[in-house]
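Please describe the entry underneath.
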Amino acid sequence: MAGPGKPSKTRKTKSSQRRRQRGSGGVFQLGDGIWKVDIELPRDAVTGRRRRPSRTIRGTREEADLALSRLKTAGDQKRLPSGGTNARSVAAAMDQYLEAARSGSLELAPKTVTTSCSAAKVMSNTTLADGRRFGAIRLSRLNWEDIESLYAAMRASGRGPDWIRRCGTVLTRSLDRARKRGLIDSNPAKDAIRPKSTRKKPTSPLEDDVRAVLETVTGRDPEMADMAVLLASTGMRTGEMLGLEWADVDLAAAEFHIAAAVTDGGPGVGIIRKATKRSDWRDVPLTSAAVAAL
């Protein structure tokens, strides 16, 4: 029999039995139609703190049970963050995505990073029809209707469909990154309908117009005329032509390989020659005029 002040073995055993096992979870009702689901994970290896990821669910008990199952699956697949994170809002999720791009852990071109930062800022500061600021919406409450409301608000402010589609790409990638880290269970941006693009198929200039340009350039600068001949006879972009090297040219076979272009690398980098997307790599046959120009 245990003495005064000493815990009994029976109590210790019951206390041990009450400890939650790794991966175990529960559903707790916070109010009418409001539930909290959480699971127990191993302590953080660095801080030693308990890890109990949770979600707040608004709906039925069945929906809460389903959310608990998804949370357990994310824990088993090690998709839940190992430490604390402030990425609880849409703006914070986009900030984490941009920080990864700036640090180099995500491979994005400097211009793409700059454009993505501008897009994230516009989306975060956009006010929806119900008065909410989009960037302040909690990730756990974000749905596809909020995102379509964002697109509508951007259209109403005068933003074009191509810019909105670009913003949608940044948002989708940010939320997908948040999903992989267990901050959300699914990516609602994939269910939202974006505005249709206004891009049209480019049209080639008329032959007489091309000849007139070549004649004008030849009379002013013969070397520039050679560049104009290459552009007119191959259809390559200006940056691709500026990035062309002799190693890419095969005069005997009358063709050259396009796989790089000159571009602006951004502050601290300057003008650089870099590989283009693999989908843009191609072998281009050369006309006799192009061979002569080279």
In short: The longest helix spans residues 161-180. The beta strands are 25-31, 34-39, 54-58, 249-250, 255-258, 260-264, 271-275, 282-285. The radius of gyration is 29 Å.
